[in-house]
Amino acid sequence: MLSWIAALLAGILTAHLAQRWCFPYFWRDALFLTRVMRYGARLEFYKRSSRIVTVVDRFVQQAQRIPEKAFLIYEGVTHSYGELEERSNRVARVFEDAVKKGDTVALLMSNEPDFISVWFGFCKLGCAVAFLNTNIKSRSLLHCFNCCGAKLLVVGADLLETLEDIIPSLQEDRIEVWCLTRESPRPGVRSLLDKMESASQEPIPAERRSVRCLKTPTLYIFTSGTTGLPKAAVITHLQSLKAAGGFWAYSATGSDVIYTPLPLYHSAASLVGIGGTIELGATCVLKKKFSASQFWHDCRKHNVTIFQYIGEVCRYLCNQPVAGNEKDHRVRMGVGNGLRLDVWREFLGRFGEIRMCEIYGSTEGNLCFMNHVGKIGAVGRSNFFYKLIFKYDLVKYDLVREEPVRDHNGFCQHVQKGETGLLLSKICSQSPFFGYAGSKQLTEKKILRDVFVKGDTYFNTGDLMAEDEDNFICFKDRVGDTFRWKGENVATTEVTEILGLVDFIQEANVYGVQVPGNEGRAGMAAVIVRPECTFDGKKLFNHVLKELPSYARPLFIRLQESMEMTSTFKQQKFALVESGFNPSSVSDPLYILDHSEKSYIPLTPSIYDGIVNAQHKV
Ligand SMILES: *[C@@H]1O[C@H](CO)[C@@H](O)[C@H](O)[C@H]1NC(C)=O
């Protein structure tokens, strides 16, 4: 009998050790998957019963359950769930008769609590809300209204100025403009704060906002387009609910304090950050703008436990001078995207054991990876079960021709484990792709057909990834006509078009180059100057300053005599990207954007060295 028990124990021990040895992540994977499936089951229930609890419904529930609890902390002022609920009711009351269920309204605001009051106020009226990127300049901004069909715009008091030159066009298009001020700041712009103050705080009946279908659009979030102008990604209730489960999936709770220094017009802050805070009933410390020097001070002051990041945030924090109390804080987790191996290591070394949870997923995409194990350098983790839920593939990609490699039958080819490939995600009813508002053509461009069999369709993420032996997925690079700089997408064609407006430029070719010590790629333009004209650095500087948001301005200019005729446009671009911006190896004249000189100035070897050694800030 005893020997039988001993044998059994030995057996269990061996099995346990074997499992530790062969499947070291088994339990963590299993626990994580259980959570994901529980959340998925809830969404599935909504789908079947058509009794959908949207993010705003959830907010209203929390406001009834915990009205006194701090929902937002902004510039030292605490706003409770109850207060925000009341304030959003007032917004809804102001516009009750002005908009109909199903209308779209646009929101141009910086991070502040009223961003959320206005957003939720319109949701309570059954409207969809379009978040406008506050960096976008006039021309692109007008285009945004056409995409999503908004008839009304609410603008923050601090951003009215940026609208100045398009207000007449907006009026022509009969778009009402409301500003968050007490008095009308100029003719044609109505004030909102005074109306909110005198409006009733009674909730609008829930019927007005009820939705029957998870695939009803609730938001439009603008992302950079490959054809130049921003694209309005359609965010349905399904996506907003999925994103709101992010913190929860990483086992955050209602007692967490979440720090959000990212702009609310991006999906990370609004959908994952605010949506996730509401899902948990937690508190969000909202920052108007990220500040590396205030970061840890804020975290200590508010007992922050979780922060949201993009790769740049962590890099800027690492670039701060070392302080004695760096590990003295309660931050236990960071949730975000784009943290690179080197910065990740340094960050943990300096600021202590913080679990960094990468979430990979584009605003409009239908795929999501989460690195729940916290393995340094990976954006996500996959396994057999995950592949049953998310049908994605990595396929061979031709960097020069900028397209997937097709075999003699015209089908794409899987890459080997460890090899880099283009990430594709299958479009099906479980993971639909809702495309972009107002443009079938743009939507079609993101779809790849006949990938492995005739008739299948995949969403092309445009990201190059590799999956290793242990099923960790690592981000390698981004392909195509966009690159990322300072946390924003830059569309090369948009920049090309703007450069083409300068009188001395005959031709421009825009691309991104890697700059040591920086995330993403900096903009660079190869430019051909018109015959009989000369390059005017000051003029070009003033033009890009006026026409392009800061992250999209080309940092480097390369003057070319002529475009090489023997190779294709794509081959030329590839060669340009490869040759970079080192004046010692590039024989063409190079210029760099210089804010102190307010001009493009010659890029000398000493400036180049300064950039590489991180002495010259870019
Ligand atoms: C942070 O935690 C400490 C210790 O529990 C507490 O004394 C302090 O009041 C908390 N601060 C805030 C802003 O909640």
From TrEMBL:
Keyword Cytoplasm appears in the UniProt entry: no
InterPro entries found in the cross-reference section: AMP-bd_C, AMP-bd_C_sf, AMP-binding_CS, AMP-dep_synth/lig_dom, ANL_N_sf
Catalytic activity, EC: 6.2.1.3
Lineage: superkingdom: Eukaryota
Listed Pfam families: AMP-binding, AMP-binding_C
Enzyme class name: ligase
Protein name: long-chain-fatty-acid--CoA ligase
